Amino acid sequence: MVSKSDTESHSWLLQQWESEVNRTILKGQPSNMLLSWLLACFFAVVVGFESTWPPVVVWLGLMVVASALRMLIWGALKKGHLNLDSNKTAHRWLVLNTLITGVPWGAAGFYFWALHDTTISSFTIFILGGVTAGAIPLMAASRQIYAVFIITCLAPITVRFFIEPAFAGKFMGLVMSFYIFFMIRQAVRYRDVLWERFRLTSDKDKLIKDLGREIDDHRKTEDMLRAEKERAESASRAKTDFVATMSHEIRTPLNSLVGGVQLIRNEKVTPQLEEAVELLELSSQSLLSIVSDILDFSKIEDGKMEVEHVPFNPVRPIFEVHMLYKAEAEKRGLAFTLNVSPSIPRRLVGDPGRIRQILINLIGNALKFTHKGEISITADYDSAGKTWKIVCSDTGTGIAQEYKRLIFEPFRQADSSMSRKFGGSGLGLAICESLAKAMGGSISLSTELGMGSKFTLKLPAEVAKGSANEELSEDVSKSTETTQLSGRVLLFEDDPVSQRVMNMLLTREGLAILNASDGKAGLEILEREKVELVLMDLQMPGMDGFETTRRIRMLPEDSATSAEVIVIALTANTTTEIRQRCLEAGMEGFVSKPLKIEQLRPFLYEYLE
């Protein structure tokens, strides 16, 4: 059932269409009259030379009279003397104008074909066909106007055909009748196309107007929401600033705590003190893990979890994690095996830092829940599927099937007793899953209560271009206990406790340490003292680590230390943005806080051995 509003809308659209048709036909009148006169002159010249001139001159006079009348009507409509806004009135005048246009051409067909001259007859039919066909773009917007024009032009010659006694004449009359019918049909189709285009354009314009009205209606709401948005953005900025501050302020003392534990670990202590140190280390690592998980989860919630796409050796992060936890596993009486397939390409594109983060989380959990047996890491490559996978398995407590589906949800563990017994925020595996998805991969769990667990990390294997035969750096598997380092290191660190701990750790590695609490003091040291490596804290009072590094790269040639000295960033914030800023400032690498000497050793062996 058609509603009243739809009927009114359609009626309004038809009125607009009729007005548009009238204006379009009126607009085309000057070019139409000019073209008609050119064809008339051409026709008159040809026919005049082929027959006699008097009838041609009379026909041209008729064309002049018709053109004059057309000019009068066009001028009256153009100047508004005739009501163009009244669609029916304007349409009648345009029909009259068309009728006047067609009469001379109809007379030409009726008279000149009757001369029984083959050349003139053929030429007359040719001209009339061209005139009526060419009028479609100018007149077909109105079916009535075009029908009047073609019938006025061709009806006389068609009648002439039919009154001929010869069969050929009657046959030509039939052909001409079919031509008239065919051209009117074509004009109707052309008109329908124009109507559909007009309707769609009108619908589009109406939609734009409706949208404009809706926009106007929503502006008040937008004004109200804008203030709310600004408050939300302010809260988001405050949250971001708080996260960055918490990252720095909490990780800085943790850096001292973790470093101090590492120093005590290397000393011979009583069993009671060793147990206390172990508890201290476990507590600091637990606190660090919770802080890191909260920071990462905050990034995931804000949609700011970043992954890199850089060439890297896929075996390296696996070996690094194995080295990191091997001693801990052996201390607990667990076998920690590593099996890396030689089929894995030596250079892939991805984020080695995020892969390392996932493995650290998985192996950390395995150590937490495995009391006997073994832990293993297996890496393999699927050339057909262009993927590679890392499987972390253990012989630990396992997970009941009813809890398996919850294991990757944030703040969830197998059951509440796990959190009370082993600690943790319950965010680690949720973060691992988010990281795997962000890298275009997946992570899955296969487990059985009392039989252990197996986590499978599957990632796309995009082979990096160039350096395909690069071998794994020996720094990863090298024993750090058999090689003594030497060289001078300048440490930028404004926290005195962290500075003392770092000095003790680096001195144990055989290095001579110079200290700077701010950027200005460090630049002065570099101008007068030669050092081989700079460790740069990014957040210092006054001049931060980025600006200090840029100043280092502009050291004068007569400085004791070259402007090309190696600079490694020490930062609690390891986002992609911060890493990019480090590289842009001229740093060669970065190590996250709290610092473990195992993380720094690859750089030390690369640049100072």
Characterization of this structure:
With 609 residues, the chain is α/β, with parallel strands linked by helices. The protein is built from 20 helices and 12 strands. Strand 8 (488-492), helix 16 and strand 9 form a beta-alpha-beta unit. Helix 9 (271-301) packs across helix 14. Mean pLDDT is 78; it is low at 414-424 and 467-482.
Poorly predicted runs: 414-424, 467-482
The count of DSSP E runs of length 2 or more, i.e. the number of strands, is 12
Distance between the termini: 89 Å
Q: What is the share of helical residues? A: 55-70%
Please state the oligomeric state of the protein chains shown. Answer: single chain
The averaged pLDDT comes out at: 78
* Largest sheet: spatial strand order: 2-4-5-7-6
Compute the gyration radius: what is it? 45 Å
SS element count, helices: 20
State the major sheet. Answer: 5 strands, mixed
Strand content: 5-15%
Structural class: alpha/beta
Enzyme class: transferase
Domain Histidine kinase: 245-463
Domain Response regulatory: 488-608
Coiled coil: 208-235
Question: What is the fold's blueprint, element by element?
Answer:
Layout: H1 4-27, H2 29-50, H3 53-79, H4 87-112, H5 118-134, H6 136-139, H7 143-162, H8 167-265, H9 271-301, E1 310-312, H10 315-331, E2 335-340, E3 348-350, H11 352-369, E4 374-382, E5 387-394, H12 401-404, H13 416-422, H14 428-438, E6 442-448, E7 452-460, H15 474-477, E8 488-492, H16 496-508, E9 512-516, H17 519-528, E10 533-537, H18 545-552, E11 566-571, H19 576-585, E12 589-592, H20 597-608
Parallel strand pairs: 2-4, 8-9, 8-10, 10-11, 11-12
Antiparallel strand pairs: 1-3, 4-5, 5-7, 6-7
Helix pairs in contact: 1-4, 2-3, 2-5, 3-4, 4-5, 4-7, 7-8, 8-9, 8-16, 9-14, 10-11, 11-14, 17-18
